[in-house]
Each structure stands twice: as C-alpha cells, then as structure tokens.
Design brief:
Number of helices of chain A: 7
CATH architecture of the largest domain in chain A: Orthogonal Bundle
Strand content of chain B: 15-25%
Oligomer: heterodimer
CATH superfamily of the largest domain in chain B: ATPase, nucleotide binding domain
Largest sheet of chain A: none
Shape of chain B: globular
Number of strands of chain B: 27
CATH topology of the largest domain in chain B: Nucleotidyltransferase, domain 5
Largest interface: A-B, 26 and 32 residues
Number of helices of chain B: 16
Structural class of chain A: mainly alpha
Largest sheet of chain B: 6 strands, mixed
Distance between the termini of chain B: 14 Å
CATH superfamily of the largest domain in chain A: DnaJ domain
Shape of chain A: globular
Radius of gyration of chain B: 27 Å
Strand content of chain A: under 5%
CATH class of the largest domain in chain B: Alpha Beta
CATH topology of the largest domain in chain A: Helix Hairpins
CATH class of the largest domain in chain A: Mainly Alpha
Number of domains of chain B: 4
Distance between the termini of chain A: 55 Å
Chain lengths: 211, 622
C-alpha cells in the first residue's frame, strides 16, 4: 500500500498520493486511498468547496486518461485507475454528508449499522413529514404546496444540523471521544431528512410536468 | 481535385477524426490549423444522409445523397433512422417497428435484424455502411489520405448496450474507435472553444431521433459535465409523425385502411411530412403535399404553424420535463445557467426554440450550425486524444445508474447516474443461504427500482465460495467504468480469494467473431463500393464543370481560339454522355479531358488581379 508520501520516481514530497506535481509521474496505488491525501488537503470538515474543485481540476489535468492515449497500456490503465480514484475521492468530500461520514470513519467513529437509535421525538417528527408528503401526493394543490413548504423547512433544518456537525468536528475529536457518537446521531438524522427531501423533490418535478 | 495542404500529417501522432453518426445525417470533422473543421470534398456538402437504398434487383445498397432522391421514387427500398434501433432487441422496439417497412426478426443471438430485399442486416451493419461512407468522404476531403482512428459521438442517454452497438458498427466499418463521447458534451467543446466561455451552460440537443439535455460547467478549459438527462426515442422523427397522423385522418377515407398501412405509402408520406415541417420552420404557413402518380393520388393541405405547434406541444413538454430533471440533479435553478446552446436539426423548429428560451429565461446561442457542432466537438476531442493539446479537458459523467439485481428482484445501485467517469466503486455482498457456494449476479442499468424494468447488461456467477452459514461470506463486487463509459465488473470472495470477472457483453451486442465475419463481408464488397462511389462523385464533379463552362459559353466563343473552343465543346459533349459510363477509369478520363479543355477559358476569365486570388482553383469554383 502506497502510504509513503514521496514520489516513487523522483522522491520529492507528494501533494497528492496519485501523481507527482514535480515529475508528473503517476503513482502506483492499489487500495482505495484516504480522500484527503488524494486531493492534497488537510483533513477537516470546514473545507472550502471552491478550493476542493480547484484541486480536482488541477489534478485531472495531470492524470486524465485523455492525456495518456499514446502511452503504454500499463500507463493508460494507471491513468484510468488513478483518475477514477480521484473522482471518487472528490465525491466523498464534495457533499457535506459524505465528507462527515469520511471524517467519522477516519477517526474510528461508529458506523451506520452500529448506532441506529434515534430519539422517539425525532421519529414522531418523521412520521409527521411522511403524512404531509402523502397528502401532498394524493391531495389538492394546497396539500401539495404544504409538502413543498415542508421541503424548505427541512432544508433549513439540514443546514442547522451541518452547522452543528461542523462545530463537533472542530477541533477534530480523537478516536474514542464521545463527540463522535454525537456526530453519528446527527448524521443519522440527516439521512432521514435527505430521504424526505428526495421525495419532496420528486413530487415537485412531477407537479411541474406539463406546465 | 483537392489542393489542400495536409499539414496535419506533420504531427507525429496520427490525427483522429470526429464523427457524428446521426439519426438523419452523419458527418466527419478534423482539427486543422488550430480549429475543428467539417471535412467537405469539393462540390460535396460533407454531410451524408444516414440512410441506405437497396435496389430492387438485390444489388449493393447505395449510401449518400443519392438515397434521398431514390427515396422519392422507390420509398420501399430506403431505410432511414436506423440509429433508433441500435443495440435493441425485437421486444425493445415493437412500437417503433411500424415505421420501418422491412420485416424485422432476431438473429440466433437475439440481435434485431431487418430483411431488406433479400438480405438480412442488423442496425450495426447498416450503420457500418454509413460510417464507411463518412470515412470515404473524409478521405476524399483529405486528398486521398485515409484516417483509421475516430472519436464517435452517441446521445448522452444511450445505455451501455447502445454504446457497444455503436462501437461494433465502427469495428465492422474497419474504424478504430479512439473514444465514444456524448453528443451534447461534444457540442459544448465546439461551442466553448469558439467563445472561450466560463460558467454554467445547458446544451439542449434535439436531433432526428434522440433528445439529450446536459448541464456543464466550463472553467479555464475544463469542460465538466454536472448532469445529463434525455430520451433516446424522441426527436424530429416524432415531430414528423404528428403531421403524418394529421394527413392520415384525411387520407384513410380516400385510399382505404389497407393502403394507409402500406410501408411504401407511409415512407412517402413521412418524407412529405418532413418537407412540410421544414417549411413551417421558415414560414407561418406551409403546403403539405403528397401524391402517388401511379395511383392518381394527389393530396394537399395547408398547415398553419400554430396548428403544428399544438400537435407537437406534448413532445416539447416532454423535453422540458427532462430539463427540470437535469437542473434538479445538478442542484441548480434555470436562472443559474449562463448560456444555452442548441444542437440538432430539430432545434430549428421555432416552437422548440421558444420553449427553451422561456424555460431558461435567455435567448439560446445559434452561432454554430446545429447540424455541425457535434462533429466539430468530436474533432476537438480527437485532437486532445492524438496528443495535440493539454489546454482542454473533458470530464464527463455516466448518464444512467448501474447496479445489481438483489434477491427479490430489486436493484442495488452501485454507480449512481451523473457520477464522473472514469470511476470505480466497490460494494460488499454476502450469501443468503447456509452453505451457499455460488452467487449469480445480474448487472442492470437504469433508474427504475425493479431489475425487470431496467436494462440487463449481462449475468455472471461467482463460484467457489467455501460452505459457511448464511451472511458470513464476504463478497466484494467492483464496478469500473472507463473514460468511454464502458463497464467492467469483478466479484471476489474475500476469505478464499475466489474471483469472477466479466467484461460486460451486452445482451444485444456482437461477439468478436461476429464482428470479424461482418468485417469480412463488408470488405468483400468494399472495392466495388469504392469504385461505384468514386464514379458517382466524378460524375457530380463533371456536372459542375459543365455548368460553369456553359454559363460562360458566350465569352468562350468570342475569346477562345477556334481549336480550344472546339476542344471545349467536344469535352462538354463527352461530359454530357458520361451518365451511361460505368467503368470508373473511363469516367475519370472524361473528367480529366474536360478539365484540360476548360483551362484556356478559365485563364481568360481571370483578369490579372483575380488570377492571384483564384490560382490553383478550377473553373467550377470561380
């Protein structure tokens, strides 16, 4: 596993574990890599999405298979592999929920399966959303509007949850810290929110059809 | 005939063609002198109708401009819009087969094929003939230099099977596919290159048979697709069909139900509808003419643009649904879009333009010819792949989700739609029964929840799992999509290292040996085909030279010496008689003689200034 952070060809320090910014050499990697090491960013929840995108584009320019089409099959395969790795690392950091999950796993926090409990009051709330959604689907224009309004409300709630998650990640909790469990619970709540938001978006698209 | 400097050949890497294999037309472009350029031999538009004509006597099918003319005389022998059937099985396209007059069947392997006047051909083979013709035209435009590598475009919403079918068609044509790219993405390359734009753009691509909508962000030369959506069975053909239905309402009482179902009758009517549609794009009212002289049928109806717009309203609305979806996927609003680009001939329809403009709240761009922009973009990608530039980069996505069928027939999505490619995703699975030693996998593509509603791309089995209680085995399945969007799936049992791997062979794809034999069949006819085409092209060229000479005959008779004049008249007469000649070498001789004979006249026509400007050109170009 290539965890050493120096180039296998020129020995200089690597900004990204996938390729060398100095000599351009594509590094040979096998196992999936830590997305922060792939993108050459400090592990943190509060990353600037513009900076993340800039890193993605800069690294794509160095390793995209389009630029290696005249090379040996081995190098071409490496370009495909490393670019795929870069894309997946970017996906894992671009969305807040994925980023939080990545950091949580990195710090040895509980995964989805091991911590499923949600407060009863929250589950009651979820049942309320479902009711509004169902009415929105089968009911009149007013009920549909209520479902869309719920969407805006949930988006606000979601933003609040991520603000909270951001605070919990700063400073970065060490493995074993009980803060990690708090983050897990907040992320579980986000999953419920996202499911409802997805359904509301589907409803919105359906309702705008033919207008 | 072509006097073009082939400076592209100075590059060390072989240049790569860009080919737009369209539903209605196909064409090739190449990067030359710092920009992409449509390849047009002299006197040729460069554009090939994507249609074949099969003569009654069972002779070799014709491709090219001539097909449109033949279609008017013998509509039963022409096949159009084959792209709709690429990579499809018989069951997939039952509803659309009524628009094709040839009986459809399936090969032993489940490939769709048409019985066209005594020969059975798959859509792949038919497309291959179109591709060969495109390659030939490109070759002619490049002064006889044949390029073997090409970037070929497909609708973004084509699934893996349809892409594979396109790949197979190219292989049958003997073309080495450097990359398959998405049409709207290609269009954005051509467009963004010219405009040097930054920001978010929407590419609305309504072609002859397919619809795509893509949202991209362009940032310092990187073209990044954010989301894409579409419908592979919605296009200009469907707009035509609304007019055909309109005509049939009046025609059925006249000609009877039986005639109205006759394939030749319908084909003729379809072409008449297409002409009416084209006219309605230019005028607020148009004549819809349809006649069959043999049957003494003359039908005519005035169609108002507003009437046509009402007919196509539901189809246009369907495209807007996809626009909403693609914005939602990109998490953007219509107002976030900085530029809108129109691609495909059907965007010439004013109602389509207007709907797009209203939806995005801004006037769409039309600087580039919507029929050319895809091929131009493919040529840009060809330039990148041949090592020509590192300034531009295309980052595309997969338009459809990929997953595995789970127990109970549901789909477990592994790669979700709009994931950037290349990509690789690994997911864990386990056994559901005690002592289960194998797992069957069904790879599916599509957005529906049930595997039965998605496209199955292939099945494979992982065997050799040691007996253990249910749920204990750890099986990881890896999906890898390369930059072409081609899928490779590997499954592996972690405790024993048992591995099963498949290069996804689509259900309606061709095996390597089938491609081989089709390739052979097309080569066997290739020399004949090639000579035929060359003779036909030469005749067109001769016609052009004759017209140019005859229009200047007055000057010729006054200014030419008697001997040159006689030579010229003689050569023109021989040119007129060329129609009966079949041998390509004889036709070539007539052309060469005509060219010689026109030189003195050409010299006279140029004054000293013009001489400089037109040096090295033929009379027909002046």
């Amino acid at each position: 596993m290539a965890t050493s952070n120096s180039c296998s060809d020129c020995g200089k320090a690597l900004e990204s574990v996938l390729c060398c910014a100095h000599c351009g050499s594509l590094q040979q990697i096998s196992e999936p890599q830590d997305p922060f090491l792939v993108l050459g960013l400090e592990p943190s929840f509060a990353i600037d999405s513009k900076a993340l995108d800039r890193q993605l584009l800069a690294l794509q320019r160095r390793m995209h298979p389009d630029f290696f089409s005249g090379e040996s099959p081995e190098i071409r395969a490496r370009a495909e592999h490393n670019t795929a790795e870069l894309n997946s690392a970017h996906e894992r950091l671009a969305a807040e929920s994925e980023r939080a999950e990545t950091l949580l796993a990195r710090q040895g926090g509980p995964d989805r399966e091991s911590e499923r409990q949600m407060p009863k009051s929250f589950l009651m709330e979820v049942l309320d959303w479902n009711e509004i959604l169902e009415d929105g689907r089968d009911g009149d224009a007013k009920a549909a509007q209520a479902a869309l309004d719920l969407g805006s409300e949930l988006l606000e709630k979601r933003a609040e949850l991520f603000a909270e998650i951001g605070r919990l990640f700063d400073p970065m909790p060490s493995p074993g810290d009980s803060t990690l469990l708090d983050i897990r619970r907040a992320l579980n709540a986000v999953r419920y929110l996202d499911r409802a938001l997805h359904q509301i978006e589907e409803l919105r698209l359906e309702n705008s059809t033919g207008k | 005939m072509a006097f073009i400097e082939l400076n592209v050949l100075n590059n060390t890497a072989e240049p790569i063609l860009g080919i737009d294999l369209g539903t209605t037309n196909s064409l090739a472009a190449l990067w030359r002198d710092g920009r992409p350029e449509i390849l047009k031999p002299e006197g040729h538009p460069g554009r090939i109708p994507s249609a074949l004509y099969f003569p009654k006597d069972g002779g070799e099918p014709a491709v090219g401009q001539v097909v449109r003319e033949r279609a008017l005389v013998d509509p039963e022998g022409t096949i159009f819009s084959i792209k709709r059937f690429m990579g499809c099985g018989l069951a997939d396209v039952k509803d659309e087969l009524e628009s094709v007059q040839f009986p459809a069947s399936e090969t032993a392997e489940g490939l769709l094929q048409f019985d066209v006047r005594g020969r059975k051909l798959t859509p792949q083979e038919i497309s291959a003939r179109i591709l060969m013709r495109v390659q030939d035209v490109a070759c002619k435009a490049l002064g006889g230099h044949k390029l073997k590598r090409a970037v070929i475009t497909v609708p973004a919403y084509f699934d893996d099977t349809q892409r594979q079918a396109t790949h197979d068609a190219a292989r049958i044509a003997g073309i080495d596919v450097a990359r398959i790219i998405n049409e709207p993405t290609a269009a954005s390359l051509a467009y963004g290159l010219d405009q040097r734009k930054e920001g978010k753009i929407a590419v609305y691509d309504l072609g002859g048979g397919t619809f795509d909508i893509s949202i991209l962000s362009i940032d310092s030369g990187v073209f990044r697709v954010l989301s894409t959506s579409g419908d592979t069975h919605l296009g200009g053909d469907d707009l035509d069909r609304t007019l055909v239905a309109l005509a049939l309402e009046e025609l059925i009482p006249k000609v009877g139900q039986e005639t109205a179902q006759d394939p030749g009758f319908l084909q003729g009517l379809r072409l008449a509808a297409e002409r009416c549609k084209h006219e309605l794009s230019l005028n607020p009212e148009a004549d819809f003419h349809f006649s069959i002289p043999d049957q003494d049928l003359r039908w005519h109806r005035r169609v108002k643009r507003a009437e046509f717009e009402k007919l196509i309203g539901p189809l246009v609305a369907r495209t807007l649904d996809a626009c909403r979806r693609v914005l939602s996927d990109a998490k953007l609003q219509a107002s976030d879009i900085d530029e809108v680009v129109l691609v495909g001939g059907s965007t010439r329809v004013p109602a389509v333009r207007k709907a797009v403009e209203e939806f995005f709240g801004r006037a769409p761009h039309n600087e580039l010819d919507p029929d050319q922009v895809v091929a131009l973009g493919a040529a840009v990608q060809g330039h990148i792949l041949s090592g020509g530039t590192r300034d531009i980069l295309l980052m595309d996505v997969t338009s459809l989700s990929l997953g595995l069928e789970t127990m109970g027939g549901a789909v477990s999505k592994i790669v979700v739609r709009n994931s950037p490619i290349p990509c690789q995703v690994t997911e864990g699975f386990t056994t559901y029964a005690d002592n289960q030693t194998g797992i069957d996998f069904n790879i599916v593509q599509g957005e529906r929840e049930l595997a039965a509603d998605c496209r199955s791309l292939g099945r494979f089995k992982l065997t050799g799992i040691p007996p253990m209680p249910a749920g204990m085995a750890k099986v990881s399945v890896r999906f890898q999509l390369d930059a072409n969007g081609v899928l490779n799936v590997t499954a592996r049992e972690e405790s024993t290292g048992a591995i099963a791997e498949i290069e996804v062979q689509p259900m309606h794809g061709l095996q390597d040996d089938q491609v081989e034999s089709m390739l052979q069949a097309s080569y066997d006819n290739a020399q004949d085909d090639f000579d035929h085409r060359r003779a036909a092209d030469l005749k067109v060229e001769i016609g052009t030279m004759i017209r140019a000479s005859e229009s200047n005959m007055e000057i010729a008779s006054q200014a030419l010496d008697p001997e040159s004049l006689a030579d010229l008249k003689d050569a023109i007469q021989k040119g007129h008689d060329v129609a009966t000649l079949k041998d390509v070498n004889e036709v070539q001789a007539v052309r060469d003689e005509l060219e010689q004979a026109t030189l003195p006249l050409a010299a006279i026509l140029m004054d000293s200034v013009a001489k400089k400007a037109v040096a090295g050109k033929h009379l027909s170009e002046i």
